[in-house]
C-alpha cells in the first residue's frame, strides 16, 4: 500500500485551515475574496468562456458576489475547492480552477476550470490545472481525477490530453442550458504510479 492510500481524504480536507495557496511559475491558485467579484463577473459573463459551460453566462455582478459566497460555503463544508487563478505578477484573477465531488471511498474527485478568453493560448490554464492535480494526488492521496467537458471544446480536450487524461465515455444530453441539451465527454487521470 502506498503512502497516498494511507491518507484519510475526508480528514485531510477537514484539517485545511484555509484555502491552500498553490504557486506556479506564472499563476497561483488562491481562495476568493470579496474584491474578486468584478473579475469573476468578467470571467463568467463572457460568452466565449461560457460557450461550453453547463450554465448560461452571468447577467449581473450580484451573481458573482453570490458565487463567491457559495465557494466559501462549499469550502467550509469541504465539498469543493474552487480556487481563483491569479496572475503571479499582480494577483489579478484571470480564472478559476476547482476540485470537487470528492469521493473518499473510491479516492477520486473531479476537476474543472475556466480562464479569461484574453489569456487563452498561453498555457496558463494548463499550469493552473497541473497545480491542482499535483496537490490533489499528493496532499489528498487521490487515486483518480476526472474531468467532464463538452465534446466540441477542442481547447479543453487538448489541455486534458497534454496533462495525461484519457477520453473514456460520452454522456449524451447530460445537461440543459437555455433549453438545449448538451453532451459531456468524460476524461480520467489515474494518480502517478497508477498508470
UniProtKB/TrEMBL annotation:
Residue ranges constituting the N-acetyltransferase domain according to the UniProt record: 27-192
Pfam families reported in the protein's UniProt record: Acetyltransf_3 (PF13302)
InterPro entries given in the database record: Acyl_CoA_acyltransferase (IPR016181), GNAT_dom (IPR000182), Ribosomal_N-acetyltransferase (IPR051908)
UniProt name for this protein: GNAT family N-acetyltransferase
Annotated source species: Cognatiluteimonas sedimenti
Amino acid at each position: 500500500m502506498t503512502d497516498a492510500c494511507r491518507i484519510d481524504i475526508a480528514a485531510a480536507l477537514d484539517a485545511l485551515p484555509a484555502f491552500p495557496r498553490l504557486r506556479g511559475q506564472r499563476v497561483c491558485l488562491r481562495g476568493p475574496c470579496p474584491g474578486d467579484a468584478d473579475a469573476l463577473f468578467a470571467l463568467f459573463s463572457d460568452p466565449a468562456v461560457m460557450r461550453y459551460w453547463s450554465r448560461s453566462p452571468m447577467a449581473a455582478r450580484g451573481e458573482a458576489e453570490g458565487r463567491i459566497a457559495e465557494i466559501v460555503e462549499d469550502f467550509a463544508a469541504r465539498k469543493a475547492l474552487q480556487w481563483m487563478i491569479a496572475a503571479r505578477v499582480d494577483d489579478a484573477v484571470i480564472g478559476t480552477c476547482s476540485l470537487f465531488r470528492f469521493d473518499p471511498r473510491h479516492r477520486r474527485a473531479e476537476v474543472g476550470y475556466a480562464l479569461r478568453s484574453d489569456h487563452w493560448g498561453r498555457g496558463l490554464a494548463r499550469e493552473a490545472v497541473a497545480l491542482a492535480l499535483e496537490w490533489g494526488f499528493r496532499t489528498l492521496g487521490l487515486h483518480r481525477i476526472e474531468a467532464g467537458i463538452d465534446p466540441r471544446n477542442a481547447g479543453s480536450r487538448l489541455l486534458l490530453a497534454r496533462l495525461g487524461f484519457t477520453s473514456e465515455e460520452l454522456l449524451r444530453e447530460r445537461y440543459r442550458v437555455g433549453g438545449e441539451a448538451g453532451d459531456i465527454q468524460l476524461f480520467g487521470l489515474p494518480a502517478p504510479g497508477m498508470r
